Each structure stands twice: as structure tokens, then as C-alpha cells.
Amino acid sequence: MKPLRPSRIALYVAVGLLGVIILYPIYILFLVAFSPAHFTLDALYPPQVPHAFTLQNLTLALHSYSLIDPLLQSLQVAFLVAFIALGLGIPAAYGLSRLPPGLAYGITTLLFIANILPALTIVVPIAAEFISLGLYDTAVGLALLQELVVLPLAVFILLGAFQSIPREIEYQARVDGAGLTRTLFGTLVPLAKAGIIAAFLLSWMFSWDEFTFAVILLPIHPTLPVVIYDNITRGNLLATTAFAIVMTIPVILLTVVLQKYLKGEELAGGLKG
Amino acid sequence: MGSFPPAPAPGGRSLLNPFRRRFRLSRETWVPLAFILPALGYIGYFAFYPSVDVVWLSFQTPFPAAFGYNYGSLVQLRLWSAVENTMVVTAGALAIQLVAGMAIATILTKEFRGKGVFSSIAILPIGFATVVAAFAFSLIFPAVGGYANSALVGFGLPPVDWIHPNAQALLTIMLADSWKNTPLVTIILLAGMTTIPRSLYQAAAVDGAGPVRRLFYITLPNLKRFIAITLIIRGISEFNIFALPLILVGNHPILLTVLVYNLYSPTYPAIYQDSAAASVLLAFVAVFIVIVIAMGGTRR
């Protein structure tokens, strides 16, 4: 084995250091979740390494607080957001990819201006409006607002996916007698699968994480992030750790799946447009 | 769009109306446009209408008062310190994220043992909800005790109050936000780096350019567009940073968003809502200015 060059050593030191910094908060979260409280939250200067293992924190929290309702609410909103993103985003992205560049650029800019508007700006008047529409404190109402942030991003990713499909394939399908909708859903959508999955997962994950709209719009039937915030403000820190872990596990799994579909080409494809 | 030009006579092309041909949408245009329409209608109702509404509300009062009364009353509610803190957090967090994202993306362009594991770790914080990240950082950086202080005391250093002094509180917010959001910056910059031809680096190496010169003369100029995108996306989010400061430090060094949240009430004709609307408008203007600056920077 040949000796390492200094630049290699520097690289490995940087990799190690960054790895530790990124993993440290996650490690602390799990340490607090699975250690007896007198080693963690009850200690003034808690030790950095685990001293004992317990599942009691989690079981206690799951028994004394209702987790099912916020979990179902979060799932419901996240799936609604992801499906609406595809329902509005796929036609819009296809349309944009077929418009003259100048017009497409203008519309994309309009979408991103909508994204730029601060969430709190939008939610203050909309909350009043939703009370009269009966959408206040409902999953649909929250999903419709969260969609604002998700939709431009979804269109951006889907546009990249559609642009990477050669126009000849579409012409071929049309020549073979497929109508416009059949061309889109029968030929183009299957080819843009990777981009569509990426858009779906990103939308889902954004909604799962979203806090600003949720804390204002769903005070009575909150989603998981709001329940976590409520427990922190009440000082139920052990319960919070349990909720935090329950909330994190599905997203970690999805991130691993997403990595397969989000290699950078999707984002780069959109940028070239 | 339909009212001008006037409806032409059926059949023939009107010579009197030169606009007609230019304004007529071809099939090539209106079919794709129809596909986009639902998304546009949605955005119009849920984004543009409320933003106009909020401006209108910000000038309403339940009693006759001077124009801009709500804005005046906000100044007494620490508006300027909220603006200042928001600016500081935005600038600091952007700087940290760009430098860290650049470093991690550069590492990921190289080949080394354990690269797969490192790239998974580098993207991992994306999977943690903002509230969860805020909670983890509140365990590390509390006012008294906690894991950061436990490390400091272990090295024989005095403990630090991470929450109450302005500087520490803003730093804690920046660190937590950067931990959560650097992966996104890394992904965008990495996508940009893969578009730079390797031959440029090889030529530079032959000419004797070291890593620092290669960074400033090849990587950064070629990444300009990607850096601009990152600044715009992240800059806007930084102005809207909300859950993190609310959980980490609460009201003490107050940020604009937290100020809006404190004033919020959905009932008419609460003066608070108007005040909230007023301050939100201000946040929007601030965000807009940042974008203009960012765009201006890339036009050069």
C-alpha cells in the first residue's frame, strides 16, 4: 500500500470533520431519546457519551400523549399536497415546455414570484377568508396553502424532465394517431418518471416539514410539527424527543429513495431552460 | 384580452385591423396555455389575491386615524430591531451555507474511499423537519447547561448563555438553520460543478495554477448562475425564517416573522391584524429588495 499524499490526508480530515458536525445533532437527539433522563435533560452538564439504554422515554410518551391524530393529519395533508402538485404541475410543465420561450419564461417567473411571497403575508388574510369558506382548520385548507411553496418547485423539476425528452418522440406518437392527452399521459409521463417521482417525494417531504401555515391554520387539529412545538413550549421535552423520532423515520427512508432520483440532472435540466 | 381589438367581421381578414393577426393566438400557443391555466389560476387566487388584500388591510383602522397609523404603531413594537435582526441572520446564514455547501460539493466531486457514505451523510439533514432540527439545537445550545456547554466545561472553558445575549442567540439561529439547509445548497452547487468541463482544470493544472487560483478563476466564475439561484432561493427563505427562532429563542431578539405571529389574530376588526398585515408587507418589500440586489449582481 502506497503512502497517502498530504492532499489526500487533508481531504479525509475534512470529510471526517464535516461528517461529525452533520451527525452530531442527530446523535444528541437519539442520545436523549434512549438514555435515562438523569443522564441527559436533568443533568446541568450532560455527558457526551451514552451511559445507559432505556426505551422508557418513548413508551411513556406514546402512552400519555395522543400521537395517532396528528400523525394521520400530517399524512393526509402530505399526500394531498403531493397529488395536487402532480395534478397541477404535470400539465403546467408540459404546457411550458411547448410554449414559445419568451412566454414560458414570463409564466415561470410569475410562478416563482408566488413562491417568493412570504408565507405569513399570505396566511393572515387567507385565514380570515377560510373561516367564512369553512376551510379553516381542515387538511384540505392547509394542503391548498402548502401547495403554493411546492408547486413552482414541482413545475421546475417536471419541466426539466419534459425538456429532456426529444420532441421527435412526441411527434411520432401524434403521427401514430394518439391525441394530445394520450400523448401526454401515455407516452411522455412514463418517460418523465424519474422527474415525477422526485417532484412527488419533494412535495410530500416539504408538507411533512411545513410549520408556518400549519401553526396558524390548524390550531385545533394540528399536524406533527405543531404538536412538537406545543410540547416544547410546555416543557415536555421527553415527549418531544419521542415525537421527533417518529416524525423523522419516514423522511429518512424517503430521502434514501429520493437520492436515487435526484442526482442533480433534474435540477440542472430545469436551469438550462 | 377579448375586448381589444373589436370583433372582426366573420370570415374575411380585416384590413382595417392590423392588430388582429398579431394578437391572434395560434393553436401552437393556446393549447399549451390551456394546460398551464389551472396552475396559474390557483397561484392567482392563493398567492396574488391575499398579497393585495394584506396591503389593503394594512391601511384599515376601526376608527378614523392618520394615514399609515398601523405602521407608526409598529415602530413601538420593536419593528426596527426586528428588521435589523432579520438582516443579520439572513446575511450570516447565507455566508455559512455558501461556504459549507461549496466545501462539501467540492469534496463530492473527488473520488475517495467512503464517498457513498459521506454523500448520504451530507444530504441527511434534509430529512429532518425544521422543528426537529430546532429541538435538537435547543438541547445543544440552551441558556444554561446543555451539550455545547458540557463540551466547553470539559475543555476547562467557561459556559456560555446561548439564548439571551443578542449575538449568541442570532448565532444559534444561524447555525441551526445552516445545519438544516446546507444540503440543498450542496445539491445545487454540485449540479453546477458537474457542468464545468474537466479539461479546464487539467489545462489550469498544466499552466501551474494551484487549488486556490483554480477556485477563483475556474470554479466560481462558472458557478455564477448556480450561486445566484442559491442566493435567491435561500435568501428568501432566510427572510421567512420562523419555526427555528420561535423554538430556539422565542421573542427575545425578535425577528420580523415572530413579530407578525405575535400580532396575529384572524378576527375583524382587530387592530392587531392590521398591524400584522403592515409588518408583513414590510417583510415582503425587504425580500423584494434582496432579490433585486441578487439579480443585479448576476447581470454584470
Fold-level CATH name of the largest domain in chain A: MetI-like fold
How many strand elements of chain B?
0
Counted up, domains of chain B total 1
Beta-strand level of the residues of chain A, as a percent range? under 5%
Into which percent range does the helicity of residues of chain A fall? Answer: over 70%
Mind summarizing the main beta sheet of chain B?
A: none
List the helices and strands and how they pair.
The complex is a heterodimer of chains A (273) and B (300).
Chain A: H1 6-34, H2 56-64, H3 68-98, H4 101-116, H5 119-133, H6 139-163, H7 167-175, H8 180-191, H9 193-209, H10 212-217, H11 224-234, H12 237-261, H13 265-272
Helix pairs in contact in A: 1-12, 2-12, 3-6, 3-9, 4-6, 6-9, 6-13, 7-8, 9-12, 11-12
Chain B: H1 19-23, H2 27-58, H3 69-75, H4 79-108, H5 115-123, H6 130-140, H7 146-154, H8 166-193, H9 198-206, H10 211-222, H11 224-239, H12 243-248, H13 256-263, H14 271-299
Helix pairs in contact in B: 2-14, 3-14, 4-8, 4-11, 6-8, 8-11, 11-14, 13-14
Task: Report what the structure shows.
The complex is a heterodimer of chains A (273) and B (300). Chain A is mostly helical and 273 residues long. Chain A has helices at 6-34, 56-64, 68-98, 101-116, 119-133, 139-163, 167-175, 180-191, 193-209, 212-217, 224-234, 237-261, 265-272. Chain A has two domains: 6-54, no CATH class; 66-272, MetI-like fold (Orthogonal Bundle), CATH 1.10.3720.10. Chain A is 78% helix and 0% strand. Chain B starts with 18 loop residues before the first helix and ends with a helix. Chain B is an all-alpha fold. Mean pLDDT of chain B is 80; it is low at 1-21. In chain B, helix 2 (27-58) packs across helix 14 (271-299) and helix 3 (69-75) packs across helix 14. Chain B has a single domain (74-299), classed as MetI-like fold (Orthogonal Bundle), CATH 1.10.3720. In chain B, 70% of the residues lie in helices and 0% in strands. Classes of the chains: A mainly alpha (273), B mainly alpha (300). Chains A and B meet through helix 1, helix 3, helix 4, helix 5 and helix 6 of A and helix 2, helix 4, helix 5, helix 6 and helix 7 of B.
